[in-house]
Amino acid sequence: MAHIIDITVDPRKAIESACDVLADGFPIAIPTETVYGLAADATNPAAITRIYETKGRPRFNPLICHMADLAMAEQYAIFDPVSRALAEAFWPGPLTIVLPLRSESRIHSLATAGLDTVGIRLPRGFAGDLIRAFGKPLAAPSANTSGKISATSAAHVEADLGAKLKLILDAGASVVGVESTIVKVEDGKLRLLRPGGLPAEDIERVAGQKLHRAKKASAAIEAPGMLASHYAPGAAVRLGATHIDAGEAFIAFGATSLPGAEKAAIVLNLSPEGNLAEAAANLFDYMKRADASGAGTIAFSAIPDEGLGEAINDRLRRAAAPRE
């Protein structure tokens, strides 16, 4: 089982222990403001292979590479003016920018799934300090079995992947609670590849242009989180519920309940006051709790598709999608 270190007790010791495991080519679970990540040396093919093996993740699905600062990111990728403006405005934070790789980049092609681009993010707080101490970028998808609910606490990681890891770093619950927003500039136009913890409206304000959204799912995987079925619990997921069937798990949003809620296996409310930031922070934890209730179906109230609601609804649609 994984060794768990509370980073609030001795951050320096946590970083030293983490760097030792990373240098040996093994992945570790790290806390970020979005979700917990399964991190390994982005320049080491053996370490990257272990990420894919630990998660059971298909190798055609690229990994986000996390950097300590903009100067480190510039060593590996080429920034156009719009991408640079977004980086300066929102890094560190829950924004991933897909950029062309530099020809001399040492990020291994396993991390980029063979693409000539790389998704880069600067995480806030401890994760950034760890990358700075390690001195190399960390490839870090979410720390959960591929396709399943993302982890927002060390306990989530331990329950899912604890037997496969050497080290889990614990910083409590993730503040944002959903993965980063992913964007890409292409032919001068800004594309939204995945909604996430940074609202689209904030990005558009800084970029001075609208984000272009795909009208239908693309067969090409350009960034993480683009698979049709993803973030899925064991139970079936029913969205936009107007009533609750007996024995279902019910995850509500806002002050209004639904008919039949009194017969639910469990009732949870993402945000009784209708706060989308609170709902995003609670989303994955509540999905795990609802799944653990033993209910065959998890029914969700409708959630506004604006601000962080766009990211929440994206995760829920993928959780509800048909599974292979």
Structure description:
By secondary structure, this protein is of the alpha/beta class. It has 2 domains: 3-213, DHBP synthase; 236-320, Rossmann fold (3-Layer(aba) Sandwich). The protein has helices at 11-23, 45-55, 70-76, 81-90, 126-134, 154-161, 200-207, 276-292, 309-320, and strands at residues 3-6, 28-30, 37-41, 65-66, 95-100, 117-121, 138-139, 167-170, 181-186, 189-194, 212-213, 236-238, 249-252, 266-269, 297-300. The strands form 3 sheets. A 9-stranded mixed β-sheet has the order 2-3-7-4-6-5-9-10-11, with helices on both faces. It has a 4-stranded parallel β-sheet with strand order 12-15-13-14, with helices on one face. A hairpin with a 2-residue loop joins strand 9 (181-186) and strand 10 (189-194). It is globular, with a radius of gyration of 19 Å. The two termini are 30 Å apart. The mean pLDDT is 94.
Order of strands, widest sheet: 2-3-7-4-6-5-9-10-11
Main beta sheet, described? 9 strands, mixed
The CATH H-level superfamily of the largest domain is: DHBP synthase
Number of helices: 9
Residues in helices, as a percent range: 25-40%
Could you please say which CATH topology of the largest domain applies here?
Answer: DHBP synthase
CATH hierarchy, class of the largest domain: Alpha Beta
Gyration radius (Cα, Å) is 19 Å
- Give the tally of structural domains: 2
| End-to-end distance | 30 Å
Q: What series of H and E elements makes up the topology?
A: EHEEHEHHEEHEHEEEHEEEEHEH
Mean pLDDT: 94
Q: What is the 3D form?
A: globular
Function: Required for the formation of a threonylcarbamoyl group on adenosine at position 37 (t(6)A37) in tRNAs that read codons beginning with adenine.
Organism: Rhizobium grahamii
Enzyme class: transferase
Family: Belongs to the SUA5 family.
